Automatic annotation (TrEMBL):
Protein name, UniProt field: RecBCD enzyme subunit RecD
Note in the entry: In the RecBCD complex, RecB has a slow 3'-5' helicase, an exonuclease activity and loads RecA onto ssDNA, RecD has a fast 5'-3' helicase activity, while RecC stimulates the ATPase and processivity of the RecB helicase and contributes to recognition of the Chi site.
InterPro entries noted in UniProt: AAA+_ATPase, Coronavir_polyprotein_1ab, P-loop_NTPase, RecD, RecD_N, RecD_N_sf, UvrD-like_helicase_C
Subunit structure: Heterotrimer of RecB, RecC and RecD. All subunits contribute to DNA-binding.
GO BP: double-strand break repair via homologous recombination
Amino acid sequence: MSRHEVPVAATGLLRRFAEATLIAPVDFHLARRMAALCRETDPRVELAFALTTRELRLGSVCLDLSRATDLAPEAGIEDGVAEGLDLDLPWPELEGWLGAVASSPAVADEDGESRPFRLVGTWLYLDRYWAEERSVEASLHRRSDLQLPPIDDAHLVRAATPLMSRLPDALQDAAVSAALRNATTVITGGPGTGKTTTVARILGGLADEDNPPLVALAAPTGKASTRLASAVAESLPQGQGGLRLRSYTLHKLLGVVPGRAQRIHGSHNLLPHDVVIVDETSMVSLTMMSWLLEAVSGRTRLILIGDPQQLASVEAGAVLADIAASPGLITSHPVDGSGAADAVVELRSNFRSNEEITRLATAIQRGDANAVVGLLTAGESCTLQDYTGREPITDYDVLLTDLHATAAAVRAAALEGDGGAANAALGRHRILCAHREGPFGVGHWARTARGWLSEQFEGYGLGAGAWPGQPLLITRNSDTAANGDTAVVVKRGDRLLAAVDRAQGTLLVDPVLLDDATDLHAMTIHKSQGSQFDAVSVILPPVGSPLLTRELLYTAITRARTHVRLYGGEEALRVAVTTPARRASGLGRRRA
Ligand SMILES: Nc1ncnc2c1ncn2[C@@H]1O[C@H](COP(=O)(O)OP(=O)(O)OP(=O)(O)O)[C@@H](O)[C@H]1O
């Protein structure tokens, strides 16, 4: 059954919502099953259950019944606009709906014993997510009162000194100070604002030759964790002396058993680390955050790093964004009498991207569509070109120039057998799409770009086999590569080898060992998180696509160091800028 087919068993109210793609077959069946188990027969309640599971699938932690009428049809997520749907839906009247849900035997209230669902105000949760949200809140509050041993003055002075050749930045100083004084610190900031630099300074302050702290550098993906480890190692003021650094994915750190809720570390077996640093926290789901906080002991310093403006986890929850929006979740009680050190610090100066891109990112964050359009109209390094889904790639000279220059440089290095140079050249430009399929999707743009390049370079992209200069994206973790790593096929003597771009350096492997690698002439914006390119060409989704959000646009354009080229309609751009991704969650707002 396709995602948008209407289940045969769906009748009445649920059928109307299934036809409008407000609920998918999986939501319908789950809701039906739960309702049947609890002898619930009111279709309004079944609808609330189905919409709750739908919202979980789409990243929210709960369903806000008072805002349910804002929910968008799901059709179009893959292939464009939801056309021909009857969206004049018979929404239940709110008060009666809330009453029916509250009196269902499947639904507990905030203080009630566990049942499959829980209604808190107008928020309907699956009980498990409510429990996880409470657990995260409680852990953060508990950690606010922890007393870590104070850092001695010599270490504080060392950390207070900016790294060589860095400009003074008061917010970076504040973040360093907070991390040394508090048990829990959250450092947020956009790309290039110095988060990694700040971590290096913090570690410089914590380093101790006599008693080196055990430090976990963790991230949701293998690529992000190795990237953090190598970036930190490069910036550490005194090298790795006085520290015991280890890098992990969060799954590895906690010893999560794949496909199960079991893990080696939890409240029953706390992590042994003195310091746990988590990068790319925006991608951490509510479940993973609750597991992490359970496993971190009261003597461990916890530092969470990330950019809450970026796209959140593909699973439910946007914990970093919730913390950034409700800093009171972590209160600060420095133990050394040194005065308040805010536990949530936002870094703001971008030291990497050019000024136009920084201004564009700021206007997007503010939701100022006029400013965004103005910057793109007058911009030199940031531009918008019309794309309606029908124009051929040959209409876009600048895109062809970017593609040609990048492929030529990648290919030249690949023919020389220089994997490092080939991977560096691959970072010059990338096509980024929100969709996977259809005229706005990765599949279409990767095929089109590769097809055009094969007309420019002899032997490029023809046939099924590998060719020198072939760009690859790894899609699964293995011994040789991490999901999200990129590689280029290079010529070494008579052989073709894949040069995998790993944080520790280039790794040469036989291309056949990379079973789970795909063409990299274009990639999704989701996959591009954590990566940087000189120029990006962003294919905007069309108006009507639920993917057209501010976070998506912000994530895409902040991948670029020097040039942002958007392809799409002005209306789509305006919709993106003015549509923040909505993720319902009660974290930090429960008693607001
Ligand atoms: N205070 C500073 N003065 C000058 N340059 C800085 C300063 N802070 C950071 N930089 C430089 O800016 C660049 C980005 O810094 P860094 O990698 O620490 O940022 P980041 O926030 O971790 O970025 P991303 O999340 O995009 O990886 C680096 O080249 C770094 O050396």
